[in-house]
Specification:
- The strands form two sheets. Strands 2, 4, 5, 6, 9, 10 and 11 form a seven-stranded mixed β-sheet that branches. Strands 1-3-8-7 form a four-stranded antiparallel β-sheet, with no helix packed on it.
- It is mainly β.
- The mean pLDDT is 96.
């Protein structure tokens, strides 16, 4: 497994922006796809975005497409989530996660990820 630490959450007004970071240590970061997920109060954890190990492929949930951008810097063992045009419904705890298998593919299911960060709170006020 890999150890993951998120940062960058906070309180922002609707229409604002935040950039989340996730620093990884342990397993070889550049061999694995990385993902961002979120969980709102009373709801199940859901997929937000994922990026392939080399950064060339990405996939987004329909709810964030066009507003969020996932990226990674393998030299820094860090994955990012740039969130623009935030909405109150984006309020949640955001988690980064590492795919359990090395490879060039990207996956959106929670069960494909075996390492999770502690989460960072994002609150969007209306």
């Amino acid at each position: 497994q890999v150890q993951l630490v998120e940062s960058g959450g906070g309180l922002v007004q609707a229409g604002g922006s935040l950039r989340l970071s996730c620093a990884a240590s342990g397993r070889t970061f550049s061999n694995h796809a990385m993902g961002w997920f979120r969980q709102a109060p009373g709801k199940e954890r859901e997929f937000v975005a994922t990026i392939s190990r080399g950064g060339g492929s990405t996939r987004y949930a329909d709810s964030v497409k066009g507003r969020f951008t996932i990226s990674r810097d393998n030299a820094k063992n860090t994955v990012y989530l740039q969130m623009n045009s935030l909405k109150p419904e984006d309020t949640a705890v955001y988690y980064c996660a590492a795919d359990c298998l090395p490879g060039p593919y990207i996956r959106t299911g929670l069960s494909s990820y075996d390492s999770w960060g502690q989460g960072t709170q994002v609150t969007v006020s209306s």
